[in-house]
């Protein structure tokens, strides 16, 4: 049997959860005040997911970087690999908020999307 304590972030209540993984694999969550806490606790001990925010380089942009994020949570264990991909990613200006920078990153089903506009440098 293994027990973990955590704070649920699925709603503003911030319940203190106790999640127990029984020897038979059953997961028991207690301390939640809403049903979302049960799912959050189970997810955190089996395959934690996170929204990833970062930035990528922009060629010929008024700004050198554009902020990006995943459009859905990705497995926490893949964040380092995704960051390595983002370090090597360069896009060409203009970039519009909502543009897909990378599709289905590492087969997660999540896209990397721009979260702001970066206009192209105006030449004289």
From TrEMBL:
Gene3D superfamilies: CPE0013-like. InterPro entries: CPE0013-like_sf, DUF1667. SUPFAM superfamilies: CPE0013-like. PANTHER family: DUF1667 DOMAIN-CONTAINING PROTEIN, MOLYBDOPTERIN OXIDOREDUCTASE, 4FE-4S CLUSTER-BINDING SUBUNIT. This is DUF1667 domain-containing protein. It comes from Fervidobacterium nodosum (strain ATCC 35602 / DSM 5306 / Rt17-B1).
């Amino acid at each position: 049997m293994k027990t973990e304590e955590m704070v649920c972030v699925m709603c503003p209540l911030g319940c203190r959860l106790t999640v127990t993984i029984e020897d038979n694999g059953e997961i028991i969550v207690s301390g939640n005040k809403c049903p979302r806490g049960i799912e959050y606790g189970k997810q955190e001990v089996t395959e934690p997911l996170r929204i990833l925010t970062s930035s990528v380089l922009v060629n010929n942009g008024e700004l050198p970087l554009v902020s990006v994020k995943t459009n859905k949570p990705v497995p926490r264990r893949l964040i380092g690999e995704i960051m390595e991909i983002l370090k090597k990613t360069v896009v060409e200006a203009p970039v519009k908020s909502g543009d897909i920078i990378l599709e289905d990153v590492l087969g997660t089903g999540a896209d990397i999307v721009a979260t702001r506009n970066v206009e192209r440098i105006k030449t004289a």
